[in-house]
Hints:
Layout: H1 2-15, H2 19-26, H3 30-37, H4 45-55, H5 59-62
Amino acid sequence: xxxxxxxxxxxxxxxxxxxxxxxxxxxxxxxxxxxxxxxxxxxxxxxxxxxxxxxxxxxxxxxxxxxxxxxxxx
Length: 74
């Protein structure tokens, strides 16, 4: 799920969200968040949904199934 790690890093940067802020909002450790950003681990489905809600994007966007406008990516 390399797309997820790249997407998460990009969202943090574009939206000006600090890793600490996201970690606190999701109740996850700095270490776990770092592993997601570096592509060393992946969130479970529940956490993926929470991340999508936090950034107001779809889970499909986070995993590369659709673009930022909700259009399917083939």
